[in-house]
Amino acid sequence: RSAGRLSEAALNRSLPPKKEQACRCQPLRAVQKTMAAAVEAPVLEAPAVDYKHSLLAGREDYDKMYKRSIEDPAGFWGDIAKGYHWEQQWEDDHHNHNFDVAAGRISTEFFKGGRTNIAYNCLDRHVQEGRGDVDCLLWEANDPGTDRRMTYSETLAEVCRLANWLRAQGIKKGDAVAIYMPMLCELPIAMLACARIGAVHSVIFAGFSPESIASRIQDCKARVVLAASAVKRGKKAIDLKSMVDKALDVSSKEGFEVKKCLVCHNASSGSGKEVTHMKDGRDVWWDTEIPSQKPESEVEWVHSEDPLFLLYTSGSTGKPKGVLHSTGGYMVMAGTTSRYVFDLQPGDVYWCTADCGWITGHTYLTYGPLLCGATNVVFEGTPTYPTPARSWQVVEKFKVKQYYTAPTLIRSLLGSGNEHVTAHDRSSLKILGTVGEPINPEAWKWYSEVVGEGKLPIVDTWWQTETGAHMITPLPGVFPAKPGSATLPFFGVAPAMVNEHGHEIQGPGEGYLCIKQAWPSTIRTIFGDHDRYETTYFAGFKGLYFSGDGCRRDEDGYYWITGRVDDVINVSGHRIGTAEVESALTLHPKCAEAAVVGYEHPIKGQGIYAYVSLREGEALDDALKKELVMTVRGNIGAFAAPDVVHWAPGLLKTRSGKIMRRVLRKIASKEESQLGDTSTLADPGVVDQLLSNRP
Ligand code: WTA
């Protein structure tokens, strides 16, 4: 049996004929080969695990709840939402949505009329219910031996101090605040402080280049930036503040002034305050400004549909999109998925290895676990430093119960010796999770057998920045897992698998993964560009949210995600738009044109393969290759650096001038025997040229 990948024939069939394309939606491209779901991959049986879910007795409970969640979303979510604090009750008909462009503006509303505050629900609620002394954040520095504990009361006090400072800068409800920080306690604190006063945070992963920081700051007009001095990742010290300085200079030249930059001195980076450049009047230190603030601050009760945060993510085309999430629905779904998928209960020690710079760090590090009252590990370092045993040392040290990571990390660990794992006591572990990309059977097996000793459930959670929370995911102990399958939809999620005409496929099959009706944490808009929002997600298939992923559904109704079907590649769980890398490459004066595709990479899942054609008279030597890679690093960030640069004297173009990525992908994957039809190429000779020219 094949383990869930769109076959080549199916995906060629699936390419929508041009004239039938609904509107401005990007054409779907061939599904990229994903490791998880390669047809050749053996289908593993998951070991039977003995896990008792604290809320669900079994499949029947799930089926019953799931049915109600789809048939009566307002009632289902309304009942769940009562578990949170609302300053003002929502209206009776609080839930509406429209996913059909023909029927008017695309919109989603949950808990309309209700007023709440997510930071209050994450912190104050627990303190008031007597859990103020429970550990909230357990911080582990990059270098072993340095750590920090903060209880719920202490975290709340710090959030209030920062909230007061933000207010003193004139930040009000609805204003955007940019955050550029490494994984310190201050990062979730910064997010919560914004939420407390109704400000909209925009966290920028502390690996983005100054250019990327500048464009994000300007897009949402953030007048205040919360930053940190520096960070050590593994052995490498990185000066973060100088990146911010450059970004603010760029912004300033482009006419946008950031008024204040609050800088958290990160002592664990090894550098003293004196080496950090501070601009008079603009830059101030966290440790001189914040401690003197009052540890209480008023809560801004916001409407359920008021924005909570913006998070930029890559799409098929153009610049990154500011995905906007609103408050009430996001809160309820973040809390509910955390509660059910990780079976998270107050005081559970939970560790999500993601960075708050990505959606996983928003929903499953900051908000979801704190809504559940869990004790959250915040890890500054890299899981393989100083040795590949670091993850399991931390698990042992804090007695972690739920551990949530990405397949790329599992793949990088599985090659480095099981003794690193087995030397550490992992008896505290109860649930293992993965996210970000399909998990290949080999990685699944190692995770299950070596880390979990065959005894732990694995939750392979499929979701996206846009979905805000888990969408298709196992529930531990509730239904059997199948390695490589994200299994069944979460409550309130109605997947539709459609063919190229948007017709829903019933039963087993392969197709494009869409969602039929709104779930509470549906992306509400792309900040400042509602048209692009409608075009990107809703114009492709009538009445449906289109995820950009392909999938297969088996005879048990289980979903197997096969990966992106658009020009987004997934490198170590990071979404990268090929168009962004291409435009970064062409910023180099010697690069005339570039085409970027993904290829299978043993650790990263996908690697970045760049074809470049150079200006007249230029040749690609090692020095130029390096410069091209540096151009991408400088413009996007190190994580987007191409792994392979292939000199393409001519790019493969059709007679109508379109780059034939399908063929470029085959060449990058060394599958030139399966190039398929190349008759529409303007110059078929280019294929041979590329093949003889491999780097
Ligand atoms: C991929 C990360 C297979 C998918 C939460 C999706 C996955 C993209 C899984 C979103 C999974 C995420 N199995 N693929 N369990 N989880 N993906 O926005 O292609 O950074 O569209 O959100 O990651 O990436 P994003």
From TrEMBL:
UniProt keyword annotations, A-Z: ATP-binding, Ligase, Nucleotide-binding
The answer to whether the entry has keyword Nucleotide-binding is: yes
Q: What is its EC number?
A: 6.2.1.1
The UniProt entry, under InterPro entries, shows: Ac_CoA_lig, ACAS_N, AMP-bd_C, AMP-bd_C_sf, AMP-binding_CS, AMP-dep_synth/lig_dom, ANL_N_sf
| Domain named Acetyl-coenzyme A synthetase N-terminal: residues | 62-122
Q: Where is the AMP-dependent synthetase/ligase domain?
A: 132-518
Biological process terms in GO annotation: acetyl-CoA biosynthetic process from acetate
Q: Which residues form the AMP-binding enzyme C-terminal domain?
A: 580-658
Organism equals Apatococcus fuscideae
What reaction does this enzyme carry out catalytically?
acetate + ATP + CoA = acetyl-CoA + AMP + diphosphate
Family note: Belongs to the ATP-dependent AMP-binding enzyme family.
| Sample GO molecular function, one term | AMP binding
Q: Which NCBIfam families match?
A: Ac_CoA_lig_AcsA, PRK00174.1
Question: Has UniProt tagged this entry with the keyword ATP-binding?
Answer: yes
Name listed for the protein in its UniProt record = Acetyl-coenzyme A synthetase
